[in-house]
């Protein structure tokens, strides 16, 4: 009986310790992005850099298994260098496989092409991702976008894709 209680206690502690939140997802993507992209110093101070939103609520009884987050960040993927290579990026993080391990980056998710220079706000829930931002208008100068844009995306988990709504 004592072994069962100890095992159940350990399992409960492990699953609650691994239940992810937005901060966990953001930290995972920060480490991930630093391995695939150049991080430009000025971008680090962008207010929405590594902003995470939970768009799918997983199973709370299983330590958040199935939790799905989208994290926004700006960087130069592949360190291409040059003007205009630091772009908006969205990375999906999911609590997969086991609740006893941290969530993972799922790089296969596809987003539609978005005319977007910078995100001003991002939110989500129930499989919907809302993105507000700015892009370049007809008369905007380089590095000074002013045209407001808004996108509503719906997740298709089966196909690992987002579609416009």
Characterize this entry briefly.
The chain has one domain. 19% of the residues lie in helices and 35% in strands. The chain has 2 helices and 9 strands, in the order H-H-E-E-E-E-E-E-E-E-E.
Question: How would you portray this structure in words?
Answer:
With 165 residues, this protein is of the alpha+beta class. The chain has one domain (2-164). The protein is 19% helix and 35% strand. It has two helices and nine strands; from the N terminus they run H-H-E-E-E-E-E-E-E-E-E. It has helices spanning 2-18, 22-36; strands at residues 37-38, 51-56, 68-77, 87-94, 104-105, 118-125, 128-135, 147-156, 161-164. Strands 1, 2, 3, 4 and 5 form a five-stranded antiparallel β-sheet that branches. It has a four-stranded antiparallel β-sheet with strand order 6-7-8-9, with no helix packed on it. The longest helix has 17 residues, at 2-18. The radius of gyration is 18 Å and the shape is globular. Mean pLDDT is 87; it is low at 3-17.
Principal-axes geometry comes out as globular
Based on DSSP secondary structure assignment, what is the total number of beta strands?
A: 9
Query: Biggest β-sheet: count, sense, barrel?
Result: 5 strands, antiparallel
From the N-terminal CA to the C-terminal CA, the straight-line distance is: 54 Å
List the secondary-structure elements in sequence, H or E.
Answer: HHEEEEEEEEE
Question: Which short descriptors sum up this protein?
Answer:
single chain, alpha+beta, 19% helix, 35% strand, disordered N terminus
